Amino acid sequence: MSSFQRNLFQKKLREAEASLGLNFNEDEEAPPPTASPHTITTNCASPTPPIFSNPTSSSLRTAKPTNQTLPTWDQFFSHNDNVTYQEKGLQFQTYYEPPSSSTSPVFICHHGAGSSGLTFAMFTKQIRHIMEEQSQDNQDCIAGVYSFDARGHGLSTSIDKDHDPVTDFGIDYFIDDFCYLTRRFIQEHCKPTNPVYLLGHSLGGSVVTKASFSLKDLVQIKGVIMIDIVEETAVRSLSGMYQYINTLPSQFATVQDCIDWHIKSGLVRDRSSAEISIPSLIRLNPVTNKYQWILDLRKTQSYWNDWFTSLSSQFIRAPFSKLLVLAGTDNLDKDLMIGQMQGKYQLVVFQDSGHFVQEDCSSRLAYTVMEFYQRTCGSAGNGSEVKIKTNWGMNKKSYQK
């Protein structure tokens, strides 16, 4: 983004701020906005790379470690089921918090490379809490969230435990897995009146976008949400990815050590989220009595170049309403910039989030996603129409994690 474009963008935001009675002043309280714009900028530290985040020394919103027991999945989700994909010989670990009614939205989430389905745990808790508060007497519009560990990640395994065949990490395999799980989930758990949104972080954003073309026959699907992934930036960062992976610790003495390392390195900036998401990335080696990564990211290297091919143009053409959430403002590529100017999708920018927006800014992301749902479904959940404004400012303190 050129200086001229940036200045023009900021000027328009200031004009929108004045016209809407909103502000960017951290010290002044304001209620969360009720409309979804085409572009939002909010301070949620500089953005981190779009595939795996490099350690940083930026300030972190963390609490000191405690000796308290770590949270468990059932504090965020009601169900964790193993779903078998017999044809592929895979068993997926899934997490599901049901919607409150047959008309409530459902978000189907796909994590990024090296992460797990529990990266969306805090987001799930936040969006349900926010919708409960805003619904007041009407509890029939509280969202459901479905998340899972992708192949080779977390607790997802092969059916044959003695011979793990999970060596294929091509984008088409991820897409096929996602389509299978999505179709099966919607068939088993959703009514035709449940609006469904496909939400993906990093690699997961590429997966849900590309998969949306194969899922367009499902009437429940209303939108696609990509979190912090831009094709041009992702492809450019791949050249240094292997070197980065080699800098990762190979093992940890305890689970807490792994959590602390993620916090200190800046990979995840919110400790409460890290305490639920990070343990699912490692497992105990009974020989060394040390914790090691479940997925060796080096095994995915031969597939990297295909993960993001044509992503930006496909996102623009995806047959649903679209929301792009980024950490930082200077990484729109040409296709996305043109698409943004043409109003093809809604753009939200969190200025001071790391790469894991759903963990660093779970509350603000929940507000943003909720308002995207309200805009695309035309209702705030209480029968009132949502007024669509092209630009608005977002007060930082209203969206504190």
From TrEMBL:
The active site is at residues 202, 228, 355. Demethylates proteins that have been reversibly carboxymethylated. This is Protein phosphatase methylesterase 1. Residues 36-46, 53-65 have a biased composition (Polar residues). InterPro entries: AB_hydrolase_1, AB_hydrolase_fold, PPase_methylesterase_euk. Residues 105-360 form the AB hydrolase-1 domain. It catalyses: [phosphatase 2A protein]-C-terminal L-leucine methyl ester + H2O = [phosphatase 2A protein]-C-terminal L-leucine + methanol + H(+). One of its GO terms (molecular function) is protein methylesterase activity. Its EC number is 3.1.1.-. Belongs to the AB hydrolase superfamily. Residues 23-65 are annotated as: Disordered. The keyword ATP-binding does not apply. The lineage of its organism: Eukaryota, Fungi, Dikarya, Ascomycota, Saccharomycotina. Keywords: Hydrolase, Serine esterase. Coiled coil: none annotated. Pfam families: Abhydrolase_1 (PF00561).
